[in-house]
Design goal:
Mean pLDDT: 97
Low-confidence stretches: none
Structural class: alpha/beta
Bound molecules: shikimate-3-phosphate
Largest sheet: 5 strands, mixed
Radius of gyration: 21 Å
Strand content: 25-35%
Length: 425
């Protein structure tokens, strides 16, 4: 796929459903009794991997006419899968499902694509083993494939070293099957969709500060879930609207949960003109975002805000490259263990585009404001890398080629179509 400089961006875009919330709706709906009806579900490859895994464990899931119907069978209704469960590219499916499988009365094996087979799984193997789970990395490298033998689990209080919603959620889900309360404390609060949605399904779950506590054995009941648009997908349009001169775009139905809204806080601190319209605070909060081209300046991004924008850092790099002055990103070592090593990959290709960027152990330093030029970029099979460089190409001189651009099907199958529709060239 090749991309060129845009004149301006104009018009409206409605963002597809949130990936994290779509995964959880299918998982919790499968463990609930009765039917869960999901609208605005993200039809991306990652969430389809979750549907596929639960179908293989005997859950009937209809995916038609703009909605998903999950016919859940209760906490103890899953059956042993006849074959290996394929997680595709999805870290969320792999880690959350491991927590569920740890407490089942059967054995299972999980695997995934080349990227999943390199992602660290010790972070969930450790707490789940402390709970009594039998979970082994088949190749002995702490990565998938994982073999899980369901066992009886004990409640624990786990102090996680990383602020990871996937780790927190795996432990809380295993806690549904434990013999007592399970608590997770994390260093800073990560996205809290599991806590909000499990409670909505009827779990006895309390969260205070950075600790969440769940009681075992609840009766979960099927619910209706309307998935808000994914702020992580909106981020590409926020960045594009801010950096392309003359732009003014309306980004509709975006989830603005405070554990996810760091991109809005940082973009505004950089000088970005973003207005929230039609705010709705029933359940997961949403708003429409009116974004206008702005002259951005560099900022320091570190500490507690990092988990609230971790997936947006690649495109924040692009904003920083276009901003005047220096942007420093710290405390973001997690970037190295995402779908690609996002520190190395961003440094490699933003440098190729003429940006002054240096990688550090836990982030990057960007001296912004130099004009960008087109380059040949490879997505490294990372959807967020492909979309970030599509945004960079809108302000770069020449023709940017993105190899492996199809990977956007993971989280935003219509991304290029939607972006192209807004561009005037
Ligand atoms: C996710 C949590 C985050 C995020 C990922 C989705 C989730 O990962 O990067 O895209 O749905 O729980 P970590 O928990 O590894 O930080």
């Amino acid at each position: 796929m090749t991309y060129h400089k845009a004149n301006t961006l104009r018009g409206e875009v409605t963002i597809p459903g949130d990936k994290s919330i779509s995964h959880r709706a299918v998982m919790f709906g499968s463990l609930a009794e009765g039917t869960t009806e999901i609208t605005n579900f993200l039809q991306g490859a990652d969430c389809l991997s979750t549907i596929d895994a639960f179908r293989k464990m005997g859950i009937e899931i209809e995916n038609t006419a703009g909605k998903i119907l999950v016919h859940g069978k209760g906490l103890h209704g899953l059956k042993a899968p006849a074959s290996v469960l394929d997680m595709g590219n999805s870290g969320t499916t792999t880690r959350l499902i491991s927590g569920i499988l740890a407490g089942q009365p059967f054995e299972s094996t999980l695997t995934g694509d080349a990227s999943i087979q390199k992602r660290p799984m010790r972070r969930i193997m450790e707490p789940l083993s402390m709970m009594g789970a039998k979970i082994v990395s088949v190749n002995g490298n702490d990565c998938a494939p994982l073999h899980i033998t369901g066992s009886s689990l004990h409640g624990i209080h786990y102090h996680s070293k990383v602020a990871s919603a996937q780790v927190k959620s795996a432990v809380l889900l295993a806690g549904l099957y434990a013999d007592g309360e399970t608590l997770v404390t994390e260093p800073t609060l990560s996205r809290n969709h599991t806590e909000i949605m499990l409670r909505y399904f009827g779990a006895d779950l309390h969260a205070e500060g950075t600790t969440a506590c769940i009681a075992p054995g609840p009766r979960l009941e099927g619910r209706k879930i309307d998935v808000p648009g994914d702020i992580s997908s909106a981020a590409y349009f926020i960045a594009a609207g801010l950096i392309v001169p003359g732009s003014e775009i309306l980004i509709k139905n975006v989830g603005i949960n405070p554990t996810r809204d760091g991109i809005l806080r940082v973009a505004r601190e950089m000088g970005g003109d973003i207005t929230l319209l039609n705010e709705n605070h029933d359940g997961e909060p949403t708003a429409d975002l009116l974004v206008k081209h702005s002259l951005l300046h560099g900022v320091t991004i570190e500490g507690d805000i990092i988990p609230t924008l971790i997936d947006e850092l690649p495109v924040i790099n692009i904003m920083a490259a276009c901003a005047d002055g220096t942007t420093v990103i710290r405390d973001a070592a997690e970037l190295k263990v995402k779908e690609s090593n996002r520190i190395d990959v961003m440094v490699q290709y933003l440098s190729a585009m003429g940006c002054d960027i240096t990688g550090t152990d836990d982030g990057m330093i960007i001296h912004g404001g130099k004009p960008l030029r087109a380059a040949k970029v490879n997505s490294h099979l990372d959807h967020r890398i492909a979309m970030s460089f599509a945004v960079a190409s809108l302000v770069a001189e020449g023709e940017t080629e993105i190899e492996g651009s199809d990977v956007v099907t993971i989280s935003y199958p219509d991304f290029y179509k939607d972006l192209t529709r807004l561009c005037t060239r």
